[in-house]
Design a protein that fits this description.
alpha+beta; Yope Regulator, Chain: A; single chain
Length: 159
């Protein structure tokens, strides 16, 4: 990571740590987890990474040029085409000091026994999210084929 990106990630993580103070004691808070941003890498005009908190795990997009990000009110939805498919992101709270978009992966995160388990899942999710969808084997159910009217009247494509 560049020094600038490291600084921006540190700022974003610190803002979420400050929010953690308010979340403690709520039934969705997992005290075994800490705020951490993992697997950050460049992708198109963004840096993409996974934000782990004691109450959620989100895929986050930070603009590579934060001054170039269009103004978006917190909570504004935006569809983003990732290599794995289309995902819905929500504009983050500007009070957190860093413009970002978030896509919920897990909320709450009570199933994670510790930070290492959450990090391992985040790393696996990141690998899958930035990979193109896998095509089903030929002839497998879900394999897309052209269906003619004749096929439909006979009960489906020949197979």
């Amino acid at each position: 990571m560049t020094d600038d990106l490291t600084s921006r990630m540190t700022t974003l993580a610190a803002a979420f740590r400050a929010r953690d103070e308010r979340m403690r004691g709520l039934p969705i808070h997992n005290a075994a987890l800490d705020v951490e941003i993992v697997e950050t890498r460049p992708w198109q005009d963004f840096y993409v990474g996974i934000l782990i908190t004691p109450w959620c795990m989100n895929l986050v997009l930070l603009p590579q040029d934060p001054d170039g990000m269009e103004a978006a009110q917190a909570g504004t939805p935006r569809e983003v085409d990732l290599p794995c498919g289309r995902s819905m992101f929500i504009a983050g709270d500007p009070e957190l000091g860093e413009p970002f978009w978030a896509c919920s992966l897990f909320s709450p995160v009570l199933e994670f026994p510790d930070q290492a388990a959450a990090r391992a899942v985040a790393e696996r999710v990141m690998a899958e999210l930035l990979s193109p969808p896998k095509a089903p084997p030929a002839g497998a159910r879900g394999d897309r084929r052209t269906v003619t009217r004749r096929d439909l009247l006979r009960g489906g494509p020949p197979g």
